[in-house]
Amino acid sequence: MATFDPHPEVAPKDASTVILVRDSESGPEVFMLRRVGGMAFAGGMTVFPGGGVDPQDADADVAWSGPPVSWWAERFGVDEGRAKALVCAAVRETFEECGVLLAGPTADTVVADTAGYAQARKQLEARELSFSQFLARENLVLRADLLRPWANWITPVGEGRRYDTRFFVAAAPTGQIADGETSEAAEVTWQTPEQAVTDWTEGRTMLLPPTWSQLRAIGEYDTVAEVLAAEPEIPVILPTLYQEEDGSWRVRFPGQEPYYAAAAHPWAKR
């Protein structure tokens, strides 16, 4: 069994991913987007909204409602500067990628309709406007209390692009519409975790291990309220990329057996 290591070790960049959830008759649904096939990282994969931390996220001077930065730093095991950047990136990326904005005009309200911010959203995605500038201009308060810390996965050593990703969960705000109006999404959908895993098992989508693992975790709950009330342990998970004797590639990670038993994985034909 040979270890896969075609690239020099690349230091992982901080990233934030948000699992948006909403209630349905079949239980909690999650918002998923299929990334454009030509993208350098996870092209063609079905994922949750998210992306890399921008340098401006760490310096953001924003009105803030919810647990203090020190609380987030303790939960994610980072210093306060990184914690602030991760939370700001989580809210910014969610807005950029699907139009859901976890912010409001006061500390206990949330924007009811984000359509009026369409131009600002494009400017944020193009990095023509910083997130703190946007919030200040619109007199909006970042609602950190609408987020919950969920997981921490790091891209395996050997990949050309690596991310140290913190996963969050958040309930989709009432009245806001999650969409696919971004250059990074080929398709978007709301699904129960079971439906999302079935699509992958039957070959209609591709799921990376972190996405698959979070779907299975969310699928253990019957309501959004239960998801938000959960307080999961957040160990740092660093999968190992390796090659089987038959030449196929796999990633070793906790709870991997059902992943490989159910369907082909993204590295099978490397």
TrEMBL record:
<protein>
    <submittedName>
        <fullName>NUDIX hydrolase</fullName>
    </submittedName>
</protein>
<keyword id="KW-0460">Magnesium</keyword>
<keyword id="KW-0479">Metal-binding</keyword>
<dbReference type="InterPro" id="IPR039121">
    <property type="entry name" value="NUDT19"/>
</dbReference>
<keyword id="KW-0378">Hydrolase</keyword>
<dbReference type="InterPro" id="IPR000086">
    <property type="entry name" value="NUDIX_hydrolase_dom"/>
</dbReference>
<feature type="domain" description="Nudix hydrolase">
    <location>
        <begin position="11"/>
        <end position="214"/>
    </location>
</feature>
<dbReference type="InterPro" id="IPR015797">
    <property type="entry name" value="NUDIX_hydrolase-like_dom_sf"/>
</dbReference>
<keyword id="KW-0464">Manganese</keyword>
<dbReference type="GO" id="GO:0016787">
    <property type="term" value="F:hydrolase activity"/>
</dbReference>
